[in-house]
Amino acid sequence: MATILVLGGGYAGMRAIKFLQREVPSEDRLILVDKSGTHAEKTNLHEVAAGTIAPGRITYEINDVIGRRVEFIQDAVTNVDVDQKQVTLANHDPLTYDYLIVALGFQSETFGLKGATENALPMDDLETSEAVYRHIEDKIKGYADSKDDRDLTIAVCGAGFTGIELLGELTQSMPKLQAKYNTPAIKLVCLERATTILPMFHDKTLADYTMRFMAKHDVEMKLGSNIAEIKPGAVVYTDSDDAEHEVAANTIVWTVGVSGSQVMADSGFDQRRNRVVVKDDLSLEGHPEVYIIGDVSAVMDPDSGRPYPTTAQIALASGTTAAKNIGLAIRGRDTKPFVYKALGTVASLSDRDGVGEVFSTNRPVRGYMASALKKVITDRSLLESAKVSTLLAKGRFDLYH
Ligand code: NAD
After folding, report:
1. Ligand 1: does its nearest atom lie under 6 Å from the Cβ of 192?
2. What distance in Å separates the CA atoms of residue 46 and residue 128, rounded to the nearest whole number?
3. pLDDT band per the 50, 70, 90 thresholds, residue 400
4. The FAD/NAD(P)-binding domain covers which part of the protein (predicted)?
5. What residues act catalytically?
6. Cα distance between residue 168 and residue 41, in whole Å
7. Which of 193, 222, 239 to mutate to test the pocket of ligand 1 (most atoms within 8 A of CB)?
8. Ligand 1 in contact with 255 (CB < 6 A)?
């Protein structure tokens, strides 16, 4: 009887545990570890941070969706020792395994930027995303007494997918908060080092569409702004002439990028930004019993010769491959390489708008079609990682009427 241990109940880990139940013999032991008892659909965290969706709409209890044969341990992983085949947890005895899937996910990355940890709000899990919205509402409510314009200014640092999607939602929710607390207009500012946005899209008109959306909703997009420091109540940045400026804001949201879980570096893996390069079957070089998937892994795309981006869709697909490969290995068969077929890539701009590219054809989509595609991707992920009942309770069905 083999013990198969999955670390992390995010997109990659939940998908892996679901497929392991089909792929490995019923006598094998399946254990899932996550520090939280709740799975959050992290591609929707920006909606929680902007207050356009209730946190309960993007979460489900891990115990409700894993099959009865899976043992779930709620605890934090502190160390992974692949030589000793041992995993250390914060509050339980260490675990040993025959096969291991490491799917510990991402964390917000400050790049050591001065004041970022102390003065900016990350958005990397449900708790921090809820805290962003609470902070925004507190400041707007407090304006009645403070009359401080900084309380009505939200600075979003970084215009990657996370920053853009957050801004899109904020354009919808901030007019409602303004009306609720009867304040002057709430100001949205975005600072981005690059001089263009959304470089991953082949069709450059998608970036233009997004900039027009932001202008229409009075979002100030400060491209070419290199953030140098976050002070209490201000973002300090330099422009292309190296001149220093500040944006005064009492809500500063940090969306300048992510790295894999710190556990990877702490455990001594050969990693870059906590991502470990894996073999084409997703196993670790020299350790065919260890699979590293999702945001803690770097999987080379044979077409581009560069690692795939770290997206939820790739995390899901890698969960399936790792589970199937463990099933093959247990039956003494050869493992198979990871093959990835994207449904498409979409950045939402509010609930009814967005920009994206479809499938591998890179056909551009914008507006309502793009937001519908994102909902289809979300629904498919719920169905494939949880249960039909989870999809019915949490899925995005508004696009079907
Ligand atoms: P990112 O790394 O993609 O974007 C961060 C942005 O911050 C970049 O545009 C970068 O130029 C900017 N930046 C970095 N340092 C800066 C500085 N000092 N000053 C000013 N700007 C600075 O990070 P993200 O948006 O959090 O996305 C992380 C990953 O998750 C990506 O792979 C992304 O594709 C993925 N993601 C996908 C979706 C989706 O598919 N809808 C949504 C969110 C995130």
Report:
1. yes
2. 11
3. very low
4. 4-319
5. 165
6. 18
7. 193
8. yes
